[in-house]
Amino acid sequence: MPTKDMMHELKARPSQFQAIWDGVRPFDLRRDDRDFQINDTLRLREWDPLISDVGYTGRVMLVMITYVLKHAEAPGIEKGFVVLGVKALSRQAKMLAPTEQLQLHGIS
Questions:
Q1: What's the pLDDT score for residue 100?
Q2: Which of 38, 49, 53, 47 is closest to 8 using CA atoms?
């Protein structure tokens, strides 16, 4: 019986988020704790622990899972992790307030 495609909301560190945003990293390495499936959607929220109390930068991206590679299929992948092939669906960038921009660049 086919499963309904799921939406997973996840944090993504700036360098990894940017590489997926730019299209140069068509994969994501994640803990295998959500039963990821092909055609599921990831809502990636850029998260930087060095800015603001919350850490979210305001940039959000939706990507669709196109491939799932687990440890059993590729022993080089650490048990408990999964490599996801991803394809960008949409990108959103929230305009940051001036104080948030300063914080982003390490200026208080």
A1: 56
A2: 38
- Report, as ranges of residue numbers, the positions in the chain whose pLDDT lies below 70: 1-3, 52, 95-108
Looking at 1-108, which runs of residues are DSSP E strands?
7-12, 27-31, 41-47, 56-70, 81-93
- Give the C-alpha separation, 94 to 7, whole Å: 21
**Right CATH for 7-104 from 2.40.100.20, 1.10.1660.10, 2.30.130.30, 3.30.1490.20:** 2.30.130.30
35 is written with which tokens?
Answer: 């039963």
User: What is the rounded distance in angstroms from the CA atom of residue 60 to the CA atom of residue 81?
Assistant: 23
H or E stretch covering 103: helix 98-104
Domain ranges of the chain: 7-104
- pTM reported for the whole predicted model: 0.79
